[in-house]
What does this fold into?
Amino acid sequence: MHCRKPALSKMKTVCSHGLPSGLSFSRCTTHFRIVTIAFAAILLSACGTADKAADTDQRTETAMAISDAARPISSNNQLDSKTPKLQIPNPPSPLATTDIKDFATPAEPEPEPLNITLATWRAERGHTESQLALGLAYSRGTPRVEKDMEQAKLWFELASLKGNSQAQYELGKLFYTGQGAAKDYFNAREWWMESALQGNLDAQQKLGYLYSEGLGVERDFDQAKRWYIKAAKQGHAEAQTLLGSLYHEGNRIPTDYAEAFKWYKLAAEQGHAHAQYTLATLYHDGRGTEVDYIQCAAWVDVALANGFDDEYEARANCRGQLDELSNRTATHLADVWKLRYSSTGI
It folds into this structure.
């Protein structure tokens, strides 16, 4: 161990001088330990192998990179010129790992169960959100509360009188269906109007439906169109479908297949089965779009998978117009769209 000789020589030199004047034994001990650690570092630096030296250099570079990356950003929001640029590898192409299941809509988390005791205590003291929550719980029934439409109506009314738009919509539904109250289209329209004016999309769509059918109000397709458009432009799938139906059928408004196609397609892409099926008929007949039997066949399959139970004769006609490759293409599209455009209802 020839490398120890210079270090030992230095140690002997320090020790040969004895204790400095005024240095106690305990302080000398501490001093000696510090000197020992220092000489140990000298030994390691002198005796370390090439691998250890390389490892030390690597650790030093890493520490410097971390230190530089942590340097504050200057006042002009630009990084210091010495800040290292991190090399982030490019992600793999999505096409390399995409599977059909990747197109599925992620499931929404389950809501936490309502604490009925606490909600009742708050609702009795005028808490509007608790009144709404109790109304919903009683109208649907839960593991903790038995379904009771009269109780639902009571809590919905209390919240509605305070201007809660969701409670107003729910109360209108009770009058419309005759649950918890006598069927009353006029009262349904009144409460839905209050809710719709506050921006409730469901109420706007329902109000449009009342006008289109003349329920609780004089039939008025212009008013129906007005309320459908309000909700449809904000993404309400049922309103989009009904608006498409107005343009498709030409009920007291000019027929416009291009507009019908536009609104049906928007609703279909949100999973509305009726819109998906009607969209297929437009592709089959070339109304509002060019004839496309592949799209027709694919959308029919998607609509049927989403619960539309009226078998449309165009399905066979679409498939019959396609060769083997085109039929496989339509089937592939349908398999992807069944997951991407899962049903929201008919």
